[in-house]
Design a protein that fits this description.
By secondary structure, the chain is α+β, with helices and mostly antiparallel strands. The protein has two helices and eleven strands. The model has no long low-confidence stretch (mean pLDDT 77).
Length: 171
């Protein structure tokens, strides 16, 4: 494991342990929604989640087996996979309602090939749309929304050998 993946897993573990301490030690409320959230965190070290305009939570690791969860009803369902594996990506919700994902690797594991893929999930059609690829593949990239709504993708690790950090960025 790389230092980045180890740190990610430790941060997830910290969140789960903190919730368990609050439940057992301080007798905080604990219900099925919290249990599901903790299970998703504990079983998927680098998953991403987004609250969609519909009020549902979209969760996935590699975009091939996403889960949609409605915190009001407690129901979950499975949107279609995106057709291409993309673990350890970065995600944001665009102001037009589309959920944009980019970067990552073909499986989310340290030795899997890094990808340049960019795609958008649309809840209103329950479908994925492939966007133009990035110029550089990035594993665990950063993402910033600019004032004009463009997205700046930066950093991330490059492909093997070495998985060195990239100093570049692109819009």
């Amino acid at each position: 494991m790389t230092p980045a993946s180890s740190a990610s897993l430790l941060l997830n573990l910290e969140g789960v342990l903190t919730a368990l301490l609050a439940w057992f030690l301080f007798k905080e409320n604990f219900d099925t929604r919290i249990a599901l959230g903790m299970a998703l965190i504990a079983t998927d070290g680098s998953g991403s989640g987004n609250l969609l305009p519909s009020g549902e939570v979209f969760f996935c690791h590699d975009t091939e087996e996403p889960i949609m969860f409605d915190p009001v009803s407690g129901m979950k369902w499975y949107p279609p996979d995106s057709g291409t594996a993309q673990g350890c990506h970065i995600v944001t919700l665009n102001t037009d309602g589309g959920m944009f994902l980019t970067g990552g690797s073909m499986g989310g594991n340290p030795l899997d090939p890094v990808v340049k893929i960019a795609k958008t999930y649309w809840r209103n059609t329950n479908a994925w749309v492939r966007n133009a690829d990035m110029k550089t593949g990035r594993w665990y990239p950063g993402l910033v929304r600019l004032p004009d709504e463009r997205l700046l993708v930066l950093g991330g690790e490059l492909n093997d050998p070495g998985y060195g950090r990239t100093n570049g960025c692109e819009i």
